[in-house]
Amino acid sequence: MIHVFRWSIFFIGIMIFSLGITIAINVQHLGIHPWDVLNVALFDLVGLSIGSWAIIISFVLIVISWILDKSYIKIGTFLNAVLIGVFVDFYMWLDFLPKATNSWVDIAIIIAGIIVMGLGGGIYNSAGVGSGPRDGFMLSIADKMGASIGKVRIITECGVLVLGLILGGPVFIFTFIFTFIQSPIFERTYLQMSRVVERVSSHAKKHVTDSRNFG
User: Fold this and answer.
1) Three-state DSSP class for residue 148
2) Interatomic CA distance for residues 135 and 149, integer angstroms
3) CA distance linking residue 25 with residue 170, whole number of Å
4) Are residues 80 and 14 in contact, defined by beta-carbon separation less than 8 angstroms?
5) Does an H or E element contain 150, and which?
6) Pick from 139, 137, 136, 160: which is nearest to 149 by CA?
7) What is the rounded CA–CA span in Å between residue 193 and residue 26?
8) Cβ distance 173 to 27 under 8 Å?
9) For a designed S-S bond to 74, which of 46, 57, 130, 142 qualifies (C-beta 3.0 to 4.6 A apart)?
10) Residues 29-56: pLDDT tens digits?
11) In degrees rounded to 5, what are phi and psi of residue 127?
């Protein structure tokens, strides 16, 4: 029961998070998240699809994390790596999300995308079935270097941003303010959903214990 609940939360969160990424990509001229800058740059240069590059980069990060510290790699990490790319490509194929209008409306669209990403990220992480490839990568580096997670995240995302910029990715004002909007939403959603998951888990365990006692 509790496993079904946790995995349901995970999949719902992944779907919402991927939706947010796609919304932002549709107005990429305003700037998108550093990792997505890299995915879009590689798509423009090489081909394949944006989702395919998200999957490829995720598996590269998983391999590095596996070498550094296997503890952050769980089955949810692999599913995260595949599903986000698949859902982004699926949403883009459906072509139902708002497109760039080159007006103030685009600002509202990208803010909506960032909010949706924050909500989705908080939800799927609260399931506790494995860190995402990027999170696991940064956490494993932080552990090995004895550095703070925040410092490693800043350095890593700055490096990814520079690489994406060199490759011609869409970097603009929202690339730099992305974190300031997304992070608080992610944190609040994660904390609230984690409490819900824990309450449901405790209730399920109590129910199982009671059933055994009366059985």
Assistant:
1) coil
2) 10
3) 9
4) yes
5) helix 149-166
6) 139
7) 28
8) no
9) 130
10) 999 988 999 999 999 999 899 999 999 9
11) -70, -25
